[in-house]
Design goal:
By secondary structure, this protein is α/β, with parallel strands linked by helices. About 25% of the residues lie in helices and about 20% in strands. The structure holds flavin-adenine dinucleotide. The site of flavin-adenine dinucleotide has 41 residues, from helix 1, strand 8, helix 8 and helix 12.
Length: about 500
C-alpha cells in the first residue's frame, strides 16, 4: 500500500508503487479554468476519453474573474477590426507580439499564434462564445457595455508603434459589466460538459505518476480526502494556473511582485508548476509578472505626466497602464505622482478602489513641488521642460504620441498620489513551465517529458514580460495553448505513447 509520504507535489509517485488505478482515461486535465476547459474540449473533440480534475467545487478559475478580453489580430483583421476600419496584417501582429514577449519572447509560440489567432477566435465562437461587432475608441480598462473591440496594449505608443502598425486587438466577450470572463467561462464550461468530458470537482491533483525513466503515466488526486490514482494513456495536461497566491514562491522567484499588495486570481498556489517540476520540468521567467494600478480611464489623464520622488519623468504615459506600472516599480523609493492640470484632470473610474487620491493641489507647479517636499526646481523644471516641448507637439525624452501632448499650464494643478506602498497595485505571475508550442513540458535541457503537457499560466507562454503585457494576452494564450496541449495529448493516446506500463 502506498503511503501518502511516498509522493507529494514535489515528489512523483513511482508507477511501480501505485496500488491500483481508480480511473483510466486517455487524457487527464488538471484545472477547470481557461486553459483546462479548452484542453479538455479539444482533446475530447478528437474522440479521446477525457477526465478533468478541479480542486474547487466549480469551474472558471481566475478566468471567470477576468474582464473577458482576448488579444486577437493579424490575417488582415477580425470582423470587428475591419468594421472599425483597421487592417491588421499578420506581420504587424507578429512584430507586436514579439515585442510584448520581451527579451525572452518565444518565437515559435508567437509565430503559431500570429498565424492562427483569427481561426482561434472562430473556434471560440464555435464553442458558443459571443462577440459583438462593435468598437470603443476611448481608453477603457474593460468595456462595461457589451461592446467588443478595445485598445488593450501599447500598440500606439513608442517604441511599439515604431515597429508594428497599430491596431486595437482586445476582443471582449459580449457581456455587460465588470468580469465578463464569467460569461466566457460559463460558456466554455457548458461546452466541456456537453462534449462528454468526465469532470470531477473537489479533486486536488497532489502528485504525478512516473516510471523509472521519468515518463508520466498519470496522477494522484485527492477526492473525499482519499488518494485516487488516475492512469492517463495519452498524458496529463497541467492547467492549474500561476503562483501569485503562494507568497513563499513569489518571495523566492519574483520578489519584486511582493511590492504589489493586491495579488489577483483564485487558487494560483503554484501547485501545477510544482507538479511539472517534480517530473523534471523546467520553470522559466519566474520573476515576471503583470502589475497594474488602474490610473486611467478617462483618457484625458493620459495627457498628464508621471514623476518619481526625484521629480523626474520616466515613461511615455500613453503606454498601457500595466507597462507604466512596471516602470513605476523600477523607480527609486515609493513615491510616485501623476500630474494633471485643470483641463486634463478628471477623477479616474477606479481611483477610489485603487486608493489614488490627490497628493497635492496648487496654483503653480512650484507650489505643488513645495507641498510634496521635493527639492526646488525638480518637479517644476520637469514640467517646464515638458510643457515647452508639448506646446510644439514633441516629447524628445520619451516620445509620447502627439495626440496626448498638451502643456500642463492651466491651473489649478494636482498631483495624484500613486504611492506603491499605498495605492492598489494588482498582480499575477507570468512565469511557468517551459513548453513547446504543442504544450509538451521541457526539461532544463529542453527535452520533452513523455506524457506531460502544460498550458495557460501553469506554463510560460506568449505573455512573459510585465513591460510588454497587454490585456487579453493571457486569456488568448491560455485558451490557445490549452487547445494545443489537449490535442497533442489526445494524439499521444491515439498513437499509443512510447511509454510502457
Ligand atoms: C480580475 C482579473 C481580470 C483579468 N482580466 C483579464 C482579461 O481581461 N484578459 C486576459 O487575458 N487576462 C485577464 N486576467 C488574467 C487571466 O484571467 C488569467 O491569467 C487566466 O485566466 C489564467 O487562466 P488559467 O487557465 O491558466 O488558470 P485559471 O483560469 O485560474 O484556472 C486554473 C484552475 O486550476 C484549478 N487548480 C489549481 N490548482 C489545482 C490542483 N492542484 N488540482 C486541481 N485543480 C487545481 C483552479 O481552481 C482553477 O480552476 C485577469 C485576471 C484577473 C484576476
Amino acid at each position: 500500500m502506498t503511503r501518502p509520504a511516498d509522493y507529494s507535489l514535489s515528489h512523483p509517485c513511482l508507477l511501480s508503487r501505485v496500488p491500483r488505478f481508480d480511473f483510466e482515461t486517455d487524457v487527464a486535465v488538471v484545472g477547470f479554468g481557461a486553459a483546462g476547459s479548452c484542453a479538455a474540449i479539444e482533446a475530447r473533440g478528437t474522440g479521446a476519453r477525457v477526465m478533468l480534475f478541479e480542486v474547487t467545487s466549480g469551474s472558471g478559475g481566475a478566468a471567470a474573474l477576468s474582464g473577458g478580453e482576448i488579444y486577437v489580430g493579424g490575417g488582415g483583421g477580425s470582423l470587428q477590426q475591419r468594421t472599425a476600419g483597421f487592417e491588421d496584417r499578420t506581420e504587424d501582429f507578429h512584430s507586436y507580439l514579439m515585442m510584448a514577449g520581451g527579451p525572452n519572447a518565444d518565437a515559435a509560440k508567437v509565430r503559431l499564434y500570429a498565424d492562427n489567432a483569427l481561426a482561434h477566435l472562430d473556434w471560440l465562437i464555435a464553442q458558443g462564445v459571443e462577440f459583438k461587432n462593435s468598437y470603443i475608441a476611448e481608453r477603457v480598462m474593460e468595456p462595461l457595455t457589451d461592446d467588443c473591440l478595445v485598445w488593450t496594449g501599447s500598440e500606439e505608443a513608442w517604441p511599439f508603434s515604431a515597429q508594428a502598425r497599430p491596431a486595437p486587438r482586445g476582443h471582449t466577450v459580449r457581456r455587460e459589466g465588470w468580469s465578463a470572463g464569467k460569461y466566457l467561462m460559463d460558456t466554455l464550461a457548458a461546452r466541456v460538459h456537453a462534449v462528454g468530458v468526465d469532470v470531477r470537482f473537489d479533486a486536488r491533483a497532489i502528485a504525478l505518476v512516473v516510471d523509472e525513466r521519468g515518463a508520466v503515466h498519470g496522477l494522484v488526486v485527492r477526492i473525499d480526502n482519499e488518494p485516487r490514482f488516475v492512469r492517463a494513456r495519452g498524458g496529463v495536461v497541467l492547467c492549474a494556473g500561476g503562483f501569485i497566491m503562494n507568497r513563499d514562491m513569489v518571495k523566492r522567484h519574483a520578489p519584486a511582485l511582493l511590492r504589489s499588495d493586491h495579488p489577483i486570481g483564485t487558487v494560483d498556489d503554484g501547485s501545477g508548476i510544482r507538479l511539472g517540476m517534480s517530473a523534471g520540468g523546467a520553470s522559466i521567467n519566474m520573476m515576471e509578472g503583470f502589475v497594474t494600478v488602474p490610473w486611467y480611464p478617462p483618457g484625458s489623464l493620459v495627457k498628464g505626466i508621471f514623476v518619481n520622488e526625484l521629480g523626474q519623468r520616466f515613461i511615455n504615459e500613453d503606454c498601457y497602464h500595466g507597462r507604466v506600472s512596471q516602470f513605476i516599480l523600477d523607480q527609486p523609493g515609493n513615491r510616485i505622482w501623476l500630474l494633471q492640470d485643470h483641463e486634463t484632470y478628471a477623477p479616474g473610474l477606479l481611483h477610489e478602489t485603487a486608493r489614488i487620491g490627490i497628493g497635492a493641489a496648487g496654483e503653480s507647479w512650484e507650489e505643488i513641488e513645495r507641498e510634496l517636499q521635493l527639492p526646488e526646481d525638480t518637479l517644476s523644471a520637469t514640467v517646464a521642460f515638458y510643457n515647452r516641448h508639448a506646446s510644439r507637439g514633441e516629447d524628445p525624452l520619451f516620445h509620447k504620441a502627439k495626440k496626448w501632448l498638451k502643456p500642463l499650464d492651466k491651473p489649478p494643478f494636482v498631483a495624484l498620489d500613486c504611492r506603491v506602498d499605498h495605492a492598489q497595485y494588482s498582480s499575477f505571475t507570468l512565469g511557468g513551465l517551459d513548453t513547446l508550442p504543442t504544450g509538451e513540458v521541457l526539461t532544463e535541457g529542453r527535452e520533452a517529458i513523455a506524457g506531460l503537457y502544460a498550458a495557460g499560466r501553469n506554463a510560460c507562454g506568449l505573455p512573459r514580460w510585465g513591460k510588454g503585457y497587454s490585456s487579453g494576452l493571457s486569456i488568448a494564450d491560455c485558451t490557445f495553448s490549452g487547445r494545443q496541449a489537449g490535442r497533442q495529448a489526445a494524439r499521444a493516446a491515439r498513437e499509443g505513447s512510447a511509454r510502457t506500463s
